[in-house]
Design goal:
Blueprint: E1 4-6, H1 9-13, E2 19-22, E3 26-27, H2 30-40, H3 45-48, H4 50-56, H5 66-71, H6 73-80, E4 81-83, E5 86-99, E6 108-121, E7 124-135, E8 143-153
Parallel strand pairs: 1-4
Antiparallel strand pairs: 2-6, 3-6, 5-8, 6-7, 7-8
Length: 154
């Protein structure tokens, strides 16, 4: 998979309304979920207690935290777009974000993206990226929304 290389606001703007690409698949294993639980202090049994989840959960397995799924966005985004000539990148916001379905442990996810909107704010490139975090073999995405980033080009 080849990354889209962006060097300026104008190059970004040329892709308005276009699909920007998809990332590689990433497996969500129990170790990743446990580390996220430790980092966020969210040890709800549905995420970390594999025996109980197998017995009591409708999924018959543990599931990833919704915010773990969201936290993968920068890593997966970096596989799709290489924005160069920037001094700084700022996460500005999330809109219309919704969790569509749980990511069962052992599933693979990937990111698909589209440039929803772009504007030049006094030299700052504001991009709105429509995104979906898809689950392999599932019709409904795990997460979708619009991520807004501010790129400060040199």
């Amino acid at each position: 998979m080849e990354k889209l290389v962006i060097n300026s606001y104008e190059e970004f703007a040329a892709h308005l309304g276009e699909d920007l690409g998809v990332s590689e698949w990433l497996k969500i294993d129990q170790e990743r979920i446990n580390l996220f639980a430790d980092a966020t202090l969210d040890h709800q049994w549905i995420h970390v207690d594999t025996a109980r989840a197998q017995r009591e959960s409708q999924f018959k397995s543990t599931i990833a935290h919704g915010y773990l799924t969201l936290s993968l966005l920068p890593y997966l985004w970096n596989q799709i777009v290489d924005v160069r000539n920037i001094k700084m990148l700022v996460n500005y916001g999330m809109d219309q974000m919704r969790f569509g379905q749980a990511v069962v442990t052992g599933s693979r996810v990937r990111l698909s993206t589209k440039l929803h909107a772009i504007s030049n704010l006094r030299g700052i490139c504001k991009t709105e990226i429509a995104f979906k975090i898809e689950i392999e073999g599932q019709r409904k995405p795990a997460l979708e929304g619009i991520a807004t980033f501010l790129y400060y080009f040199e």
